[in-house]
């Protein structure tokens, strides 16, 4: 990234973008940030959100940082089951949080983990053959979007990775075939530059598991007795499998957060098994996309520090992974969690309105429906301080840079101070 | 502060010290000459064994694939919880321990350095993130080249060795590594083009380049850049019966250039016998003994549950058929590399597994020069690293070894020469393999020995008849002069250094090519790809150490 005299920054990575676009041009004027180039519906609001609060509050009253830290520490010292959630955070913020979760025998959950759990269940049961964004960009011939409007979460996905001017292997990208299983996308990003529309294999969301199972069976070479699966003619599914078997490289993608129906993991698993079977003779791969609001970063850091993937509890003094029991919403809903620590330095999403005492270590500009017990405004990594974030494919960690001097502490500094102030846990 | 370690029995092969009683003085983290000054601290080490801190020169402790393994196997990790205790934060052990537990357990065994051998350039930042969270251990990485599009393209286009050297050097700098590794040369790329095998002289179908060409070019690049550690090679045909021929061809084909063959056990398989699977260890050992340019580490298999995590997506896709439990991940990565994570349960009664175990031990015992062979399990691929004390006992104690041999699959035992090998490793030889030799191989001039000026990474053991017990729980471990382990307990947390090399190169020249290449084909900008020193050093834990390169 380079800085020009007029405080224009180029090649800026976006901490808000799951696909980690790093070609933004940004103007900083004092503490005001403006995206000049390559902004989109996700990154512009992320960068341009104004700074508001700079002073911590306890019970709504402005206090010094040390008072707020002491208050947060006091709550944690006596908490029986503190829940740590939010985690639109960078690597260092998440590291500091895991350290505090460990010390306070809490639970770590990321606010977007629900979608990720669907993928994780598949990984932990059967695994997959996956790919990453540059492979997609340079190789994909047939891209299947399974039950997901990818553009809705990642506005620049098609621009950056599909309709690209050139590939390493001389492909005419305008000929790439995009197939949506489920609904048609709302936007037009999947439309080829020559106006060719993506192919839609329409089915309801409820039919997705059945369609996925049909595809997996056809990939194995099974003959289906039915004429249609989930309302989709078998011939159409067979044609897709046949096409993929002719292609050099195909990719199945989905945004697990959008597959919001019971046991969506079983549908994802069928897609993954379909791809595993196809790989007996041809090359294909899956690309689960996520990574918004720091969910991949939180997941990665949690996994290497605790040895377990996200949704981890340290209740017994050591980390235990449980995708179900450590779901934050459930711990709050059934009254198990007695303190909520909401750490969100990237996003502006406030904690859910809940009844337990809440400590918010949140990006300045966050607005609450219900004033938390403690609010400590912090800087945003990638704007107010340097950091690192992980992209949706888990492979690329992008550096984030400090663009302005806001004087706000980082979440990591605040979390470390709380840990320091906690002393011994009394409960 | 002056520390005196008095009267210990010292094994310091770098200085030819083989079990002599010596005093060692440490001041401010370094070993200093004997002095008349009154020490601030003195340790009475009479009757104790003193060695430099151990160095694991090939252990998968950081990067995407080990974290995939952690995601994949909660049931394996669940059985080995590591509670928060004393100075130690909580974590877990078993096949791929949490980073924190990795550091504690290495330190508790007297290790003070570990090197991640498969740093994908595009994933290097993650490798450093994870290694930064391994306490008590110095770290470093070998950056993986050989299936990356840019290099294969250069080879296809007949670019000069000097130009390739420049690219290799740029990659080492950009990823903050200390060496270069190649994994299934060109094969990871070939798998993306739907090739399923790639023999030494077989062409990658897109680039028309063979593994032999890649090996020769990269070995020469590393040598000419003066990088101390020779090209670190995970060869073709990993795990395939008959691959001993490939390995022998690889050795002869490198034409005398320095080369390190890693986890050679997995590349030492013959096709003799009823099951067409046999030991090639004797032939490999003979070739190593004859070719002084070659070093190896073993990648010993030990029995039990583990997981194999490799950059070799082609081989791992093949191996997925024997995944246990039956789940696995393969990945194509960024036109740069790949990975495959496949759980394995090595069983002593299984013919193949038992023979793998025997092949590794045969290799250890038949290679004559301990300076050219290194003690590894290829953690976690052959076994988790905390099996090292057990492995050391197998090497040092023939009757223990033969008892173990009697328990393995009898057909495998019958095919192995292990029972007839008399050799027992000495403490001096163990110190070479795990300290002095490893440091020399990597160009760590101030590690792996106890001479004046060395960093005071020191391990003190109590001599015991049971070598496993001796090596699993040292009395004292000093890291850069600080006492970090006392009687098997962590008494201080320090953070290790990151060892690197920075060979000379022409940055402007290579970046004028790479910048547009990144803009056009990659998914991140060149500027954002490069790892700056401050990214590693700014949080005040890790310090980058740069070792010198001597141009050939």
Keywords, separated by commas or semicolons:
heterodimer, A: 427 residues, alpha/beta, five-stranded parallel beta sheet, globular, B: alpha/beta, ten-stranded parallel beta sheet, nine-stranded mixed beta sheet
Your description of this structure?
- The complex is a heterodimer of chains A (427) and B (552).
- Chain A is 31% helix and 22% strand.
- With 427 residues, chain A is α/β, with parallel strands linked by helices.
- Chain A folds into two domains: 52-112 and 293-423, Rossmann fold (3-Layer(aba) Sandwich); 115-289, 3-Layer(aba) Sandwich (Dimethylsulfoxide Reductase, domain 2).
- A nine-stranded mixed sheet of chain A has the order 6-5-21-20-19-7-8-17-18. Chain A has a five-stranded parallel sheet with strand order 12-11-10-15-16, sandwiched between helices. In chain A, strands 1-2-3-4 form a four-stranded antiparallel sheet.
- The model of chain A has no long low-confidence stretch (mean pLDDT 95).
- Chain B is an alpha/beta fold.
- In chain B, strands 6, 9, 10, 11, 12, 13, 16, 20, 25 and 26 form a ten-stranded parallel sheet that branches. In chain B, strands 1, 2, 3, 4, 5, 21, 22, 23 and 24 form a nine-stranded mixed sheet that branches.
- In chain B, 62% of the residues are buried.
- The model of chain B has no long low-confidence stretch (mean pLDDT 97).
- The chains are: A alpha/beta (427), B alpha/beta (552).
- At the A-B interface, helix 3, helix 4, strand 9, helix 5 and helix 11 of A face helix 1, helix 2, strand 7, strand 8 and helix 3 of B.
